[in-house]
Every structure is written in C-alpha cells, then in structure tokens.
Amino acid sequence: MVEPVRDPQALQAQLDDFQNMQRQLQMLSMQRQQVNLQLEEMKMAQEELGKATGKIYKAAGNLLIETTSAAAKKELAERIETFEVRATALGKQEEKARAKSEEMRAALEKMVGRPEGA
C-alpha cells in the first residue's frame, strides 16, 4: 500500500485545483449544450426555409427585414457551419478537461491513501 501524503496544504491545493477543473468542465458542458440547441434550432429553420413560399423575412434586432430566399439560405448555412465548428471545438475541450479531471481525481485519491477505483 502506498503511504498517503499527510501535507494538508498540498492536499488543499490539489483539492482546490480539482474543484476548479470540475467547474470548468461543467461550464464547457453547458456551453456545448447551448451551442447544440442553437444548432438544432437553425437546422429546423433551414428545413422550414426550404419549404417556404412567398416573402422571406429575417430578424435584425427588433425589426423584421425582407430578404431573398437565396440570401437567407446562404446566411443560415454559414451560421450553421460556424456553430458546428464551435460545437466540435467545445467537445474537444470538454474531452481534454474530463481526462485532466480524472487524472486529478486519481492523484487526490493517492494523496489521501485511497486505492484508485475504490
């Protein structure tokens, strides 16, 4: 059995770092979820835009401005692409943060003399 480290200051510092990582991981997860929700809304709008006949309007602040179907489709496709890139980047950041969090958890358990996975 590994002798646990009994330095309370080192343990507290590790615990603080771990808690900060957990908060960061939670924020990344929430951001990714928000981006994915917005992405789904845009995809639904894109589907509806494909079915639309007649005049097309887009929101500009508190105003609705008439636009062409082609311009609206192009703008929406660009926004979707941007959000897909953003969702992918957030997913990668979340994976890295999750891995780092697990490493920190294992190190903390080792410091308090707890076997990993127990």
User: Which residue ranges are poorly predicted, with pLDDT under 50 across at least 5 consecutive positions?
Assistant: none
Approximate strand percentage? 5-15%
Please outline the major beta sheet: 2 strands, antiparallel
Structural class: mainly alpha
Distance between the termini: 13 Å
* Count of extended strands: 2
Number of helices: 2
Radius of gyration: 23 Å
In the sheet with the most strands, the strands line up as 1-2
- How would you state the average pLDDT, rounded? 90
What percent of the residues sit in helical stretches (DSSP H or I)? over 70%
Order of helices and strands: HEEH
Principal-axes geometry comes out as rod-shaped
Write the layout of secondary structure elements.
Elements: H1 8-51, E1 56-60, E2 63-67, H2 69-111
Antiparallel strand pairs: 1-2
